[in-house]
Structures
1.
Amino acid sequence: MKKSIYSLMLFDEIVEKIDQMAYVNYTNRSQLINEILAEHLGIVTPEQKIQTVLETLKDNFKDTLSISQVNKNSSIQFGKSLKYKYRPKVKYSIEFVGVGGQKYAVLKISSRTKSVDLNRHFDNFFEIICELEAQHISEGEFIYETSANHKFIREFREEGSVTQDPKQVVSLLTSYLKMIDSAIDVYFENPTQDVKPVIQSLYQDYLREKNAVPAVASDRVAPVVRDRRSL
């Protein structure tokens, strides 16, 4: 959907009420008016699709992860403590980036630890996932990690786009996050062992579940995998 600027004449009292509602709902005047008109006309906006995805993800993980924040039509954050010494915390963030109808989902994983040893383990874990993704990543998707901040970033530019069916986007993101969460548990519960075969098995399970969902045909472009050492 394309957005354009229009000039409207409205009663001051109506604008005042709109601004109050926008404040309560953590949005702005233009966005709220757009949502009200879309609902009245029976049109589903990209923002409404995103909110549907976020609310469903919240329900899907309410019993397994701690939901720390949900930003309307924008992002959701989960947190958990790892079964590792000092019980370090890891944060999962799923946010939609881009403009209007071109927005897509991005998963970010990070930890605020300053421990050199723990950050080394995070980097090793991310490298395992990147190696697996390099072999199986869908065309048009992007994955990279930044060694400076010990973060993992996975973009779902095509399969996680607002142009897709929200149910399909939810299924993809739920399966991927469950896989990552299980894999990170396996790794940090056995940091001194070779758990790569187990993580590979979890990744293969994710692929089978993902491929069981019919994909929407579209023009394909070559995948891009950025090695963290090149950033």
2.
Amino acid sequence: MIGKLIAKIKKTEAPIVVGLDPMLGFIPERIRQGAFQDLGETLEGAAEAVYRFNEELVEALCDVIPAVKPQIAMYEQFGVPGVAAFKRTVDLCHAKGLLVIGDVKRGDIGSTSAAYAVGHLGRVGVGGKSYAPFDEDFATVNPYLGSDGVKPFAEVCKENNKGIFVLVKTSNPSSGEFQDQPVSGKPLYELVGEKVNEWAQDAPDPEAEGYSEIGAVVGATYPEMGKRLRKIMPKSYILVPGYGAQGGRGKDLVHFFNEDGLGAIVNSSRGIIAACKQEAYASFGEDHFAEAARAAVFDMKKDIAEALGW
């Protein structure tokens, strides 16, 4: 699957993934009210508004980006209707030719981890049939429980041509409370990076120019740590959150990429999907939020290209 992602990055010339993390406050009044008129001010109405918002965004962006990253919590908050909207969003994105990184941050052990992996990346048997429940292309995985939590995902990836991104150094300010603590003379995030590199050796994608189906999450807000981790995990693709709204910029991203110009994909969520609320894109207005998002993607693409000397 990482080979497909690389191909789409090259085609769009955009190592960018847009986080589809909608909040009701991001959604224009016309969409919210339309959904509420149809389904009431209910969980169903809220979930429908989220889906309609995503629908316009995907239509505007599907030809200029390779992938999207829906954060499942933004859907789960609306209960069962929200989870249904998550699945509808995954299917919509696939129909429009986009790859989907399910930002689910799952991590458990044994049969529980296997069930998470099958639910998001694999197929579950029901009687004599099998089904792909959510069917994302990639999922984010929390490694805190160790290999027992990650190996079931790696096995499902091999069986279904899927991939994962393992949390190594996250972009949030308090990440250092645990991730930066010294263990055997190294910060914990380096030990996790070394383990990711070990797992990556066992999961090559023959169509991915040497890259593995086992990738990593490393925040743009920590460029020096990203530089170190790039060397520790040379064949793991790095999913880079923290661009834009969290403060990351193109100049912070240089060392996340390899010399081949590959190796990283940069995420922006509200910096894209809520671009119309920023001064730079306010002229588009709320009703044209999708056009504002498209403009923000082009600006992000330019910023990254200039930083990398493309």
3.
Amino acid sequence: MRMLKAALKRMIANFYIYFGYINRAKKKIIKSDSVVSIYFHNPSFKTFNDCMQWLIDNDAVFLGPGDLLSFQSNPKNTSKLKVLITVDDGWRENLLNIVPIAHFNKIPVTIFVSTEPLIEGGGYWWSYIKKALKNGYTTCTIPFLKTIPNQNRLSIVNHLKSFIQIDRESMTVEELKSIAISPYIQIGAHTLTHPILTNCDDDLVAKEIIQSKTVLDAILPAPVNSFSYPNGDYSEREINILKKNGYQIAFANTPGLIHLNAKMDLFRLPRFEILDHAPLNENICRMLGVWF
């Protein structure tokens, strides 16, 4: 079944490309003066490099979050494809699979980091769930845990953490420092522990948002001013806390283009998800919003 599904997805992606959907989407995006906003998590070197090379071959202009702030006050039209690249979580493999490519091609990339894995254990909570499921220690799935009150999720995760060990997945503090000095890598906040913020009470949401910035500001050479909502979930509550605590821009996971106009909402910025190990043709379709 998995092989059949993969073959079907390849056929669909090839159809979109060979019958001109990609070229038409590209022209429409350029004409509308919009930004293609894409995000990765933990891509392979090949996946990230292939995507970047395709964008370079298509004469893309690469932007960072700061450019969106500048565009809002001083809009500039260009007849090229504009692309903004973000990466969620702070995976250790980003050091080898993303950073060198960004450096070599002079591509700005923003990496949103969850600070608890960075500083304390190195593991992301969903990885404990995956290992527990594999070994029959729990029947709770990750999608289910994303729907329940955060205190209930924490109770389950912390119980599993007490006897399950996983290898480090997150960067270390020193590794983060080493890439933060790059002119092409910007670091943003992604909460302390990566909860679903809309499942948390007011005090915890404030702690997750405010203290994640405090931790990163103490580590990095420049203050953090950008944020990515874990799982893309947010409400007006989260936006208000961000605005009051030094953040200038925030990214959701809602698919869509960023339209450079006076109505651009800098705290609800959309992004297209790029799959970490999908074939290039599928990810091309995803980058331009053509994927079904």
4.
Amino acid sequence: MEALEQLRFLTPAEVGQIAARWGTPVFVYDEATLRERARQALAFQAPFGLTVRYAMKANPNAQVLALFDQLGLAIDASSGYEATRALEAGISPRRILVTAQQMPRDLVSLVERGVLFNASSLHQLETFGGNFPGTEIGVRINPGVGSGHSHKTNVGGPASSFGIWHESVEEIKAVAAQHQLTITRLHTHIGSGTDPLVWTKVARLSLDQVRSFPSVTTMSLGGGFKVARMSYEKTTDLQEISQVVADALRVFAQETGRKLHLEIEPGTYLTANAGSLITTIDDLVATGSDGYKFLKLDSGMTDILRPTLYAAQHPLIVVNDRPSTPERYVVVGHCCESADLLTPHPDDSEVVATRPLQKAEIGDLLVIEGVGAYCASMSARHYNSFPRTPELLRRADGAVEEVTEP
């Protein structure tokens, strides 16, 4: 039987205390983990300067944004609405960069306030140029390759709509010339990955594109750094990745005399394992000797949609002090929806997967780990009219405060 997963930063006593005070379900974010992850990201090797932009779509809570701003991280916003949210959290507009699938409806007001913009399509570039001729802009280019555990998380390559296709360089130049735009930032985004060889290839592909734009001074390598939520998974070695990127930048500088500033855009890496979701086992049902034992939670896809969307695996820990032999369970959410499943099979949606857990009873607490990224911010909130789940921040001194936003 597989090993049981363990709590990441909360103790069993803290889990009980928080549940008793705030009820369940409830998100808890850990400041100490957020600080440590930020420190690691800021240590990314960049020989000619580094900007770490937090991909705020991972977790846009204002307290998280404020903490990262205090620590020296800038903001990567994926919509005009995210940019506005960051501004409302007190982030300086010059530290916010918008790279969006949908052209911000308030683009003009955002840019006039100082927010930076990357054009992700020729249409966006044309629209920006029409509004702001003679100014600077960044462009997002699809380098023709991607990296992710599935096509749903792969945002580079011919099957991806993200960015301007890398063979459209001359069209980019023509639009820029028409509006007297100076392209100062080149942005690529490949998806999530841990393989240094993939990052080496993308860095080189990106640098090849930079050669076509003499005015570019900043290369932005988007793409998530894989985080091990489950104990058997592998977390990206940032130093290993940064070494190959730094080497590529040095070689480029030697060949061209151009010393490029580097930007990276971690989201999951910074916040995923800084979040826990405390739930209560609301019911336990069985489907006979040839069936399964189901644990029904008072949470589900209204808080954590990743298992439904991606068959993502999250650690599940039953919190009780009763000694027992682990049992295998299917864990499901509280929605009237067959896809509200917390133990999906990672490879086959038609297979019912079970998970070994501490023997559970109705009323026990169950903690879902790895929920600091793309959970509260990316959920089926309000489905079945379930209310919004509170969010808490566990400060570095152990104090816990509510940081739920309207």
